[in-house]
Specification:
The chain is α/β, with parallel strands linked by helices. It has 11 helices and 13 strands. The chain folds into 2 domains: 252 residues, Spore Coat Polysaccharide Biosynthesis Protein SpsA, Chain A, CATH 3.90.550; 37 residues, no CATH class. Strands 5-4-1-6-11-8-12-10-9 form a 9-stranded mixed β-sheet. Strands 2-3 form a two-stranded antiparallel ribbon. The protein has a two-stranded antiparallel sheet with strand order 7-13. Bound molecules: uridine 5'-triphosphate. The site of uridine 5'-triphosphate (UTP) has 21 residues, from helix 5.
């Protein structure tokens, strides 16, 4: 069984739900507390043992590349000013030379198409796929547990979480079969099911481990929902010949592609910081109280 060494981060979406913030700044570079959203996702991949980080970028996204590059002037200035702690923190986040690759999705034709753009960089091996606008809060990274499940099952793994059944039509939903190892067998998948038709309330939360055969399916893929090339449609086809397992993630997921999810993520991650919690908790309480009279 081949190990999961590479991760793909599709960052070519337009981020229209977050305009005007995302007109000039990629949504992946908006900050949650003091780190850009993309950093959380890359850190999750690192924690899971990923060795190579593949970004599928688009126009106006070069700042993401800059973020993961060495900034000589800044590093020198920090060193000269004796700000060793800050310098060490930056260097610790820095990928090592050759650990990152970038390719462009020239036209945003959908998530399935973005993943297909990474085919040559991934090659003939299983890979992790992390949607960078979904960030997770938990003691153990979601992908780390998925890699462990993969070691027991091989094949394909999709992370899921429960949603309000009335909201299921907004997500990709999986059907749940028998429990297997630390996950379960996936019996079906549907992208944004019509209301009342969802096979469960387990939604796909943006973390996958996929086999490379997905690329030959995506190559022939026709457009699906929203006139986009859909990853879920391709996974459904792959499920005809390969098993898919679900990993039920028990932490929290924040959709930072939407203003609400982004604000919630900021509050949640700040409250997990011991240096911020006491003051922030008090302020939130006061603000909630004051807002009641508005
Ligand atoms: P989303 O649909 O959440 O991203 O795609 P979006 O299209 O940027 O968002 P809105 O709806 O306009 O606000 C999920 C992930 O897939 C990537 C996005 O960057 C996001 O991480 N994506 C989507 C691509 O890389 N290319 C695409 O053509 C579409």
């Amino acid at each position: 069984m081949k190990r999961v060494r590479k991760a793909v981060f599709p960052v070519a979406g337009l981020g229209t739900r977050f305009l005007p913030a995302t007109k000039a700044v990629p949504k992946e570079m908006l900050t949650v507390v003091d780190r850009p959203v993309i950093q959380y996702v890359v850190d999750e991949a690192k924690e899971a043992g990923i060795e190579h980080f593949i970004f599928v970028t688009g126009r106006n996204k070069t700042v993401i590349e800059d973020h993961f590059d060495v900034q000589f002037e800044l590093y020198n200035t920090l060193a000269q000013r004796g700000k060793d702690d800050q310098l060490a923190k930056l260097q610790q986040l820095q990928p090592t030379p050759g650990q990152t690759s970038y390719t462009r999705q020239q036209v945003p034709l959908g998530l399935g198409h973005a993943v297909w753009c990474a085919r040559d960089l991934v090659g003939d091996e299983p890979f992790a796929l992390l949607l960078p606008d979904m960030i997770m809060q938990s003691d153990r990274g979601c992908l780390k547990d998925m890699v462990e499940l993969y070691a027991r099952t091989a094949n394909n793994i999709i992370a899921v979480q429960e949603c309000d059944p009335a909201e299921a039509h907004k997500y990709g939903i999986v059907g749940k079969g028998r429990d297997a190892h630390t996950g379960f067998e996936i019996t079906g998948m549907v992208e944004k099911p019509k209301q009342g038709t969802a096979p469960s309330n387990l939604y796909i939360n943006g973390r996958y481990i996929l086999q490379p055969e997905i690329f030959s399916i995506l190559e022939k893929q026709e457009r699906g929902a929203g006139n986009e090339i859909q990853l879920t449609d391709a996974m459904l086809k792959l499920a005809d010949s390969q098993a898919f397992y679900g990993y039920h993630f028990k932490g929290r997921t924040f959709d930072c592609g939407s203003p609400e999810g982004f604000v919630e993520a900021n509050v949640a991650f700040a409250l997990w910081r011991s240096d911020m919690r006491p003051r922030l908790a008090d302020t939130i309480e006061q603000l909630v109280e004051e807002s009641k009279s508005r």
